[in-house]
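To: structure subgroup
Subject: Chain for Friday's discussion

All,

I'm putting the inputs and outputs inline so they're searchable in the archive.
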Amino acid sequence: MKHNLYFRLLMFVLLPLMVVVSSGCKRGEDDPMFSLKSRDKRLLGAWKITNITAVRDISINDNSNVINTLMEVRFDGEETKLDSTVVTNSATYKRTYTYKGVSYTLNFEKFGILEVVQTQADYRYSGTNITGELQQIQTLKNSIQTYWGWGQDDKDKSNLTIGLNIYDFGPTYKIRQLKSKEIILESIYNDKDEETSPGYTYTNDLKSSITITLTSTK
C-alpha cells in the first residue's frame, strides 16, 4: 500500500512537469535543450531588433552579357550599412551607404497582434549649408499594428510569420533560436530562371538570405 501511495504521489508531481518540459523542448537548432516556458510565453512581450544581416546575390547572363549584383545589408540596432557591388563585362561599381539613428521594437501580444515601433533620431547640422557638427535635436516615434502567427500547419511552432517586410524578406521565417532573452530568425530564398533557344541563352540566378536577432526588453 505504501509503495502504491508513493508511486501515485510521485506521478502526481512528475506528470505536470513532463508536460511543461515537452511543450518547451528544443525545436530550432540553437534552442535550449528544454525550457519550463512554452514557446508562446517565451515569444510574448517586447523585443528590440539588435542585428540584421541580409545578402542578395543576383547573377544575370543575357547571351554572354553578364551583370552580377551583390547587396549586403548590416544593421546593428542603430546603424544600417549597405554595400553594393555591380560587376559587368566591362566595369565594376561599388557603393557604400550608411544610415544611423533608427531602431525597431516588436511587441508580440496575445491573439496574434504585433505592434511595431520605429524610433528615429532627427539630426541637424549646427551651421548653415551643411556645415558644422551633426546634432540630435529630437526623437520621433512611429508605430503600426500588424499580425504574427506560427507558420501554417506548423505544429512544432518552428516557423514564425510576421506582417512586416524586412528588406523584401518574409513574411515567414525559420526560428533558429527561441530563448527567453534572445530570438534568432532566418530566411533563405534561392531561385533560378533559365531560357535557351537557338543562338540565345538567358539565366537569372538569385541567392538571398537574412538573419534577424531580437533581444528581449521585458
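Points worth raising on Friday:
The chain has a mean pLDDT of 82.
Residues 26-216 form one domain.

D.
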